[in-house]
Design a protein that fits this description.
Elements: H1 3-22, H2 27-48, H3 55-61, H4 72-78, H5 81-103, H6 109-128, H7 130-133, H8 144-167, H9 184-216, E1 218-219, E2 225-227, E3 230-232, H10 236-259, H11 265-270, H12 281-304, H13 308-323, H14 367-372
Length: 373
């Protein structure tokens, strides 16, 4: 069952965007993002698969013509429990979509309804065309009633979201500033962004090395390649790839954060810093050495498909659960002057000077009152 794990992987970009927008991520937001991706993949899988095993035999014995009668659902309901359950399940299938688009995306009712109808049309058309030509014939029936019940389900889900929002109002989550105390998930999301950027640098360069190598060097027939008087073996490409990967890693994980107050590019996008304390130059060297050791093991394990990367992450997670920090955070230093990320303060109106006194202010008698006395 790869479905939950693929959903978790596809949730990372959404979580990164939430960090970028709100400067923080609550458990509810992370769980909501995962559920949304899980639902989207499940919707595709349940409506498109499975396909018949023998396309030739199935297409020769089946001719699934489109069902275009918008009142056919009445006949379905009269067939018994199976027909009623089929209609109900088509409604229930799209209720989460309407709920999520209202509660989490903040879409209007008509936009949500139109989007649900469009999704249902896309699903039915995909079934009619054999997923746009992948399968040689229609393997499920195009049914206009499915589009009606799916759209109805999204509308009901939207209504449920409106009622739920009245009972549980949404809280403002946007913060400002740089997070000086990032959590474990925040750090891992930033790490994933950095590793992706590293891969986008060293992989194309490695492909370029290979292309130029076989373009310039000629094979000698004995496993060696020669250019002018230089004879090399193909494994030199492995060395060049590893050197490029290592240099890219040091660029993104050491040089950039060292020059930018502990912020890698992933940290800058998610508004956090890896340096939770102010340290001297020597202390920073020790800090980055320890961090580079751990992250280097993780990156190297991922690049070579070695399980050590998973064990290292597990060790860091256990350490975090016990100490509430990373091993490199234990390097001595002083707490920064910048306070932790906090909600953006509201500007209060200027207070008149007279209101500063704790006693009621009595107006001074006027000159005319003195003369009357």
């Amino acid at each position: 069952m790869l479905w939950p794990f693929v959903s978790l992987l596809l949730t990372l970009p959404i979580v990164a965007f939430v960090y970028h927008r709100n400067h923080r991520l609550s458990f509810t937001s992370a769980f909501s993002a995962y559920v949304a991706v899980l639902y989207a993949l499940g919707l595709v899988a349940f409506t498109m698969y499975p396909m018949p095993d023998d396309p030739t035999l199935f297409c020769a014995t089946h001719n699934l013509a489109p069902q275009l009668d918008i009142l056919r659902f009445i006949q379905y309901a009269q067939t018994g429990l199976y027909g009623v359950l089929q209609l109900v399940m088509n409604v229930v299938l799209f209720m989460p979509l309407g709920f999520m688009l209202c509660r989490w995306a903040g879409w209007k009712f008509w936009v949500t309804s139109a989007f649900a109808l469009g999704c249902s049309i896309f699903i039915e058309t995909s079934q009619l065309t054999g997923i746009w030509g992948i399968y040689p014939c229609a393997y499920r029936q195009f049914d206009v009633d499915d589009m009606l019940t799916n759209t109805l389900g999204a509308m009901l889900g939207y209504a449920c979201a409106v009622l739920y929002t009245k009972l549980v109002p949404k809280k403002a989550k946007q913060l400002t500033g740089t997070n000086m105390r990032p959590g474990f998930v925040h750090r891992m999301v930033s790490m994933c962004i950095d590793f992706l950027l590293i891969a986008l640098v060293y992989m194309p360069l490695s492909i370029l090395y290979i292309f130029l190598f076989y373009l310039v060097f000629k094979s000698t027939g004995d496993g060696h390649y020669v250019w002018l008087s230089l004879t090399v073996e193909p494994r030199v490409l492995d060395y060049m790839t590893w050197i490029t990967a290592a240099l890219s890693f040091l660029l993104f994980e050491v040089w950039i954060p060292w020059r930018h107050h502990g912020q890698t590019l992933g940290c800058r996008y998610t508004h956090m810093t890896i340096e939770t304390r102010d340290r001297s130059r020597g202390q920073r060297i020790v800090f980055y050495a320890i961090r580079t050791l751990f992250f280097g093991v993780i990156f190297g394990g991922l690049a070579t498909n070695h399980p050590i990367w998973g064990w290292t992450l597990l060790a860091l997670l256990i350490f975090w659960l016990v100490k509430k920090c990373m091993p490199w955070d234990l390097v001595p230093g002083t707490d920064p002057q910048m306070p932790p990320t906090s909600p953006q303060p509201q500007t209060l109106p200027a207070t008149p000077e007279i209101s500063r006194s704790p006693y009621p202010q009595t107006p001074a008698p006027s000159a005319s009152a003195d003369r009357r006395g």
